Amino acid sequence: MEITSEQIKSLRDETGISVMQCKKALEEAEGDMAKAKILLSKKSGEAAAKKSDRELGAGAIGAYVHTTNEVAALVNLACETDFVAKNEEFIALSRDIAMHVAAQAPKFISRDDVDEAAMAKAREVFAEEVQDKPAEMQEKILEGKLGSYFKEFVLMEQPFIKDPDKTIGDLVTGAVQKFGENVVISEISRVSVK
């Protein structure tokens, strides 16, 4: 099947991913736009994993103050180079994440940041709830309950307020693919009057 430049442009406009990657995805999907998006999403996770150990030397601070002036947030979105850090889309992403932090008040950036005390306390509460379940299923059910509970407090796992079909983790992974660099939320801060 012949892939047209209009199809490539349309996919690039929707995803922000390079023309060559869009073309390859469309060719692999035989022109099916929905399938091409899925392929690009899958590849973004692979790209993020490959770049995760690269050193971060630049970034942008995203700031958001709500119109009521009662809540504000700062996000340090780190990347490898100034070239990416000064990119308008990268700066806009840092602001969007700051807006999300102001609205959702996450306590942790990633699951790795959850301290042992909080994990132990939650495990203790949920262990009581699964006592009446079959012994072989208790641990699996407990892990599911812990996952659901901490999803609310872990930024990378929260659904993005502007597009609930994507998590903040999906946005960061997409940024890695889009900018071709390691991108990490290295710090968040939220202040509220109430």
3D architecture notes:
The chain is an alpha+beta fold and 194 residues long. It folds into 3 domains: 5-51, Helicase, Ruva Protein, domain 3; 58-109 and 153-192, Elongation factor Ts, dimerisation domain (Tetrahydropterin Synthase, Chain A, 2-Layer Sandwich), CATH 3.30.479; 115-151, no CATH class. It is 54% helix and 17% strand. The chain contains 8 helices and 5 strands; from the N terminus they run αααββααααββαβ. It has helices at residues 5-15, 19-28, 33-51, 82-85, 88-104, 116-129, 135-151, 168-179; strands at residues 58-65, 71-79, 159-160, 163-167, 184-192. The longest helix has 19 residues, at 33-51. It is globular. The protein starts with a helix and ends with a strand.
Tell me briefly what this model is.
The chain has helices at residues 5-15, 19-28, 33-51, 82-85, 88-104, 116-129, 135-151, 168-179; strands at residues 58-65, 71-79, 159-160, 163-167, 184-192. 54% of the residues lie in helices and 17% in strands.
Topology:
Elements: H1 5-15, H2 19-28, H3 33-51, E1 58-65, E2 71-79, H4 82-85, H5 88-104, H6 116-129, H7 135-151, E3 159-160, E4 163-167, H8 168-179, E5 184-192
Antiparallel strand pairs: 1-2, 2-5, 3-4
